[in-house]
Design brief:
Layout: E1 4-8, H1 16-24, E2 29-32, E3 41-45, E4 48-52, E5 65-68, E6 73-74, H2 76-88, E7 98-101, E8 105-106, H3 109-122, H4 134-142, H5 149-152, H6 155-176, H7 184-198, E9 202-203, H8 205-214, E10 219-222, H9 248-251, E11 262-268, E12 271-273, H10 285-294, E13 307-309, E14 311-312, H11 313-323, E15 327-331, E16 341-348, E17 364-370, H12 387-400, E18 404-408, E19 416-418, H13 421-424
Parallel strand pairs: 1-10, 1-11, 2-5, 2-10, 5-7, 6-8, 7-9, 11-15, 14-16, 15-18
Antiparallel strand pairs: 3-4, 12-13, 16-17, 18-19
Helix pairs in contact: 3-4, 3-6, 6-7
This protein binds guanosine-5'-diphosphate.
Guanosine-5'-diphosphate (GDP) binds at residues 8, 12-18, 40-42, 331-332, 334-335, 408-411.
């Protein structure tokens, strides 16, 4: 099995969980390399739905090592809650099954407080952050005042770091935002206790990944969010605070670029975006609502309705370039069943093959493809799909320039059509 990076090609929520699930059967390790508990992969365990926000998706497969790389920011409380929830379901996570990088940055209570206070203060200019402290933690990482997992394992060091950092945070919380100051002693006590519980999982993930590589076990790098939420390549400032593109898999884990053989891009058969920011193919009114309802496009944790629109080939083509995507997985094709005609954006007016520096003024050029009436959720091979549906997939492939090797026609594991050696091995 080659080493593979899986990334979202749009604004996240593309259905990465299911594709990662299909691929994780064949690998020795599933690795998270960026983001924090703002991801949300939906998995099914014994008929029950489990949403993992921080744990890599391979945690439910025996023999699979799950790695939280140095590029991830970790809320220890959330991580322990997820471990406990799986244990209650009879799926305990053993130390050999999960390895947490000692270099990963830790989300501290002041990050959570500041994230919320800042977002509230923005009023209608909100970015739409999930307020889980992820942005402020990345800020502190770059400002070299972060706390890493290794610090949690050393109470004296943790106390020293908190004493050093907290006064400035408390000043900001109380004087700028009018909030309540946090207590250093309490933070140190709480985080030392959580550090003790996590100690068995913390380790040298760089060494581990290199050993797995030598053994040829296959590593799956599981991206969170999507390409256009990337802090460099996304629709700034309406982005997340990490690099979400495939290249981040290297920096976020300590594996070199030459060790990665495949990059799988996940694209929804239409487009959605959460929160503010430009969205050229957004469908307003009834059509937007139709996609939202049939696609169940409401945030997994917040219940917030997602903005919905048509497939944007210019966007996904750009994602292919930025990530070096070699294969595509197309998800939620079933959601489009029943439409008379389906608009697809083939490019932006006046842009030719170039991608504009900002999407604010991008005017999509649409082509209409014929829709199909049949329910396709029962289809298990491409030749069972209605001719119009096949034509839709083929046209997207042509516009984006990469083969579609997995088509998802429903949320279930079995509601999947695969072709190509990567998914069928
Ligand atoms: P992620 O944020 O990209 O990891 O997205 P998830 O893996 O959590 O998927 C988002 C939602 O879409 C989940 O509720 C999935 O069950 C659902 N889903 C995934 N693929 C399909 C599909 O092909 N059709 C339909 N109808 N739902 C899907």
């Amino acid at each position: 099995m080659p080493n593979v990076v899986v990334v979202g090609t749009q604004w996240g929520d593309e259905g990465k969980g299911k594709v990662v699930d299909v691929l994780s059967r064949h690998v020795g390790a599933v690795v998270r390399f960026q983001g924090g508990n703002n991801a949300g992969h939906t998995l099914v365990v014994g008929g029950e739905q489990v949403i993992l926000h921080l744990l890599p998706s391979g945690v439910l497969r025996s023999g699979c090592v799950n790695v939280i790389g140095n590029g991830v920011v970790v809320d220890p409380r959330v991580l322990l809650d997820e471990i406990d929830a799986l244990e209650r379901r009879g799926q305990p996570v053993g130390p050999g099954q999960l390895v947490l990088s000692v270099g990963a940055h830790v989300i501290m209570p002041y990050h959570l407080v500041l994230d919320r206070l800042r977002e509230e203060a923005k009023g209608h200019r909100r970015i739409g952050t999930t307020c889980r402290g992820i942005g402020p933690t990345y800020e502190d990482k770059v400002a070299r005042r972060g706390i890493v997992v290794a610090d949690l394992l050393d109470p004296a060091r943790l106390a020293e770091r908190v004493e050093e950092i907290l006064p400035e945070k408390n000043r900001m919380i109380t004087e700028w935002f009018g909030g309540d100051a946090l207590d250093a002693g309490q933070i140190v006590a709480d985080y030392t206790a959580m550090g003790q519980r996590l100690a068995g999982y913390a380790g040298d993930t760089v060494g581990l990944l290199h050993r797995l590589q030598r053994e040829g076990r296959g590593i799956l790098f599981e991206g969170a969010q999507g390409t256009f939420l990337d802090v460099d390549h996304g629709t700034y400032p309406f982005v997340t605070s990490s690099n979400t593109v495939a290249g981040a898999a290297c920096a976020g884990t300590g594996v070199g670029p030459t060790a990665i053989q495949e990059v799988v891009g996940i694209a929804k058969a239409y487009t959605t975006r959460v929160g503010s920011g430009p969205f050229p193919t957004e469908a307003h009114g009834d059509m937007g609502e139709r996609l939202r309802v049939s696609g169940g496009e409401f945030g997994a944790t917040t219940g917030r309705p997602r903005r919905c629109g048509w497939f944007d080939a210019a966007l996904v083509r750009q994602a292919v370039r930025i990530n070096g995507i070699t294969r595509l997985a197309l998800t939620k094709l079933d959601v489009l069943s029943g439409l008379d005609a389906i608009p697809v954006c083939v490019g932006y007016d006046g842009q030719g093959d170039a991608f504009p520096a900002t999407l604010d003024e991008a005017r999509p050029v649409f082509e209409e493809l014929p829709g199909w009436k049949a329910d396709i959720r029962g289809c298990r091979s491409l030749d069972e799909l209605p001719a119009e549906c096949l034509r839709y997939v083929a046209r997207l492939e042509e516009l984006v320039g990469v083969p579609v090797e997995l088509v998802s026609v429903g949320p279930g594991r079995e509601e999947t059509i695969v072709r190509g050696d990567l998914f069928t091995r």
